[in-house]
Amino acid sequence: MINIPKGTKDILPKDSYKWHKVYDVARKLARKYNLKEIMTPTFEHTELFIRGVGEGSDIVSKEMYTFKDRSDRSITLKPEGTAGVARAVIENSLYADALPLKMYYITPCFRYERPQAGRLREHHQFGVEIYGANTAVSDVEALSIAMDFYSNFGVTPTVLLNSLGCKNCRPAYIDALREYYKSHIGEMCEDCKRRYETNVLRILDCKVDICKEITKNAPVITDYLCDECKAKLDETLALLDKSGVKYKLSSRLVRGIDYYTNLVFEFVDEDVTLGQNALGAGGRYNNLVGELGGKDCPVIGFGIGIERLLGYLAQKNITIEDNEKVDIYVASMVDAANTLDLVRNLRERGYSVDYDILSRSLKSQFKYADKIGAKYVITYGEDELNSGLLSLKDMSSGKSTKCKIEELKI
What we know:
Layout: H1 16-33, E1 36-37, E2 43-45, H2 46-54, H3 58-63, E3 65-68, E4 74-77, H4 82-91, E5 101-110, E6 122-131, H5 136-151, E7 158-163, H6 170-182, H7 190-198, H8 209-215, H9 227-243, E8 247-249, E9 261-268, E10 278-284, H10 288-291, E11 299-305, H11 306-315, E12 328-332, H12 336-348, E13 353-355, H13 362-371, E14 376-380, H14 382-387, E15 389-394, E16 400-404
Parallel strand pairs: 1-5, 7-8, 12-13, 12-14
Antiparallel strand pairs: 2-4, 3-4, 5-6, 6-11, 7-9, 9-10, 10-11, 14-15, 15-16
Helix pairs in contact: 5-9
């Protein structure tokens, strides 16, 4: 027997309707907020992620699925969605179109990391990217889309917010962090020793107890923000207050990807009994397009892991209703040709229809209809064939009626 690769998961027929619900919500939101779908390849040139995500990030240094193709080119399965979108924007000069450019994607992502609840080596993301706006209003727009998405599942997470500053004020903060951590290097985990050299900001996000303890007294970015960054953050918070979005400032919040600047955020459930309380994250990456060789263009966006969301809903006992159950099951006792005629007619009328293809007894057909959750069952025998009247049973109420096919309404 060949087993599924570690860190991957089958989406079984009994659960696929949950994924369809997520897709439907995402696409309805896209229509509501004027987001256009963008689809990028599953794999890209490795250089894209080294330059875009950052060579010092955990994703690039430890988690990417990278291989050489038959022409000896280094190829990587995409570990996240943003870099590929930025590459597509540059390559196709999309920032020359009418701005802002508002896009969304639903894509698989691949990271070689230890599998755990809500974190798989192959996972799927719903992401949103807004290009061309560097305003507090665009910050709130991105956050509003995400919160609207969650509300469709009966969830209202808290938004944790921070500013990482800009290229003018962040260097002073980085210098302050280096100075602070310099005397603690020997106590820190091996990853943080490496982060001290490559991206000292990432130490703030370390989950190792000793590093978390050391970080408690580290300098905070808000003490180093320039006037422009302070004003921008204050304006965003004021607009969020008016919009009713629940948020908290978190001065230790950073992201594990190097392209973030200014605003960063996470969506969390503060119920500490949950193992994975981070439901999604995002922020602003105004320098990404320029760093990848394009014309400077401000961007804000977020990504939400679909597996993480579905696992979280299950933990919270939030049920996604299965609306994909078949409308009508035809329990037939006539020949196949007449059965097919009826089934075809019903399907042409817009109903989802199933019927027996195993030559089972009428009793077995009713049992099967009940198992698959059919809303109605039509019993189709010689009497119905000759009279032109259908025998229709409502499976929820048990009520039976007769009607002509052209009068059928369910």
